[in-house]
Amino acid sequence: MDIKLELIKVLKKVIKEDISNIIETPNDFSKGDVALPCFFLSKKMRKSPNVIAEELVGKIKLSKIFFRVVNEGPYLNFFVDKKLYSESLIKEILSEKGNYGKNKIGKSKNVVVEYSSPNIAKSFGIGHLRSTLIGNSIANIHEFNGYKVIRMNYLGDWGTPFGKILLGYEKFGDAKLLKKDPVKHLFNLYVKMSKDDKFDSESKEYFKKLESGDKKLVNQWKLFRELSIKEFKEIYSILGVKFNVYSSESMYNNKLDDVVNSLKKKKLLVEDDGANVVKLDNLGVALIQKSDGSSLYMTRDIATAIDRYKKYKFDKMIYEVGSEQKLHFRQLFKVLELMGHKWSKDCVHVAHGLYLDKDGKKFASRKGKTVFMKDVLNETVKLAKKSKVSSDVALDVARAAIFYGDLKNQPSKDAIFDIDNFLQFSGDTGPYLLYTYARANSIISGKSGKVSVDDLDVCEIELIKKMGEFSSVVENSMLNPSLVSHYSYELCQKFNEFYHACKVIGSSNEKFRIALVKSFMIVLKNSLSLLGINVVKRM
Asked: Which listed site, 1, 119, 347, 451, has its alpha carbon 20 to 30 Å from 235?
């Protein structure tokens, strides 16, 4: 029960305009719990804000949780019945538990979320971690909002890079190294081939032969693909990330001619320097087919999108892919629109920034400057154990550190990957949030509470209000998990302020405060679950 949402319900009866973004929280409690500035109505009503506030105050019919409204200059100040509100909210949380905060806005709607999408024969590096974590959280939040989510991993298993890898293995491959650490060996070969331009032409020929069905190359490619997927699934298992569907670029090779023919029929395809393209005015040129007849990402992505709509009849399709692909997706959606696919308007690209190292420089796989995810996870667990975390929760702490260290950032912004900073137990970090949950658990473990209170401390009220905001945060975070991250941190701050100001066990309000702590734990657990983070009862 969000106080601001409750106020909106009350004011809808007398104000028709959208007021959701202008409701304020007064710094001074004597001025009320929430306030509505009336400046925005002045132009439309041709009256001063002060007069408008004075007129509205007599028209408003308050709901149960509001016991008073006063106008003070251009403001309407609303006062909440804190006892009624607090008891109602805590009853709601304790009753709904894991369902508290869920919305039904996505009921009976399908959403496809494509995320992670690593490249075959290139080890799962830190470069794909952002897409994995952000996409996973977006999927979690949509499910919490009532959507049926199809979690899709679209593997990069086709294209000219595979020409480099296949040629590299033929020239420099080692069967023993392939058996010992297959993906790292293939990655090293890719780096070696990328550093020398003299292999470019031959690599392109190798990919063309692969596309044409060369038996030897196809079998080699299948082996590399199988070995890569095996490693990816091991990493996903450790991260606790799941997918409903594993798809890949190669699955759509037999549908590419259909795309080309459809574009020709609609007279969208034109020849440009021997290549087939779609001209998109201010979006430039979308390359559909190279002069040698080989396909491109765009062709495959068009075929993929059409196939997904046929299969899932999605109401929304979200691509969680790096910001360097912004133009590609703008072109893709425009081409789909020109082809007559009305659902193209329901396609969304959630772009993420790069991971940067401690020096603010990007990781570049072609130059071999990358960080392997297996190594990161192992090292983070070791560091967690060194910080005197129990062995049985070290992995949960490590995951919380990595997940939160990423997800607290705005997705579109670059983020510094700094494990040492991520693992701090104070400040805006994942371990701090887990520690707060464990602290709360230690307070009320095995004790029962009661939802009844006479007097409320300011810190109790602030914590309760923050818990009441959760549902609104969930609804507004569907494409931006950082809002859930910030909320989780603010919630923990409010709890720790309460913990330091208010004695729980042995206080006159002990039973109520136990119920309050239990409610806090439920809300924090629900919030962190949306980020893919598991809570721990002890550290």
From this structure: 347
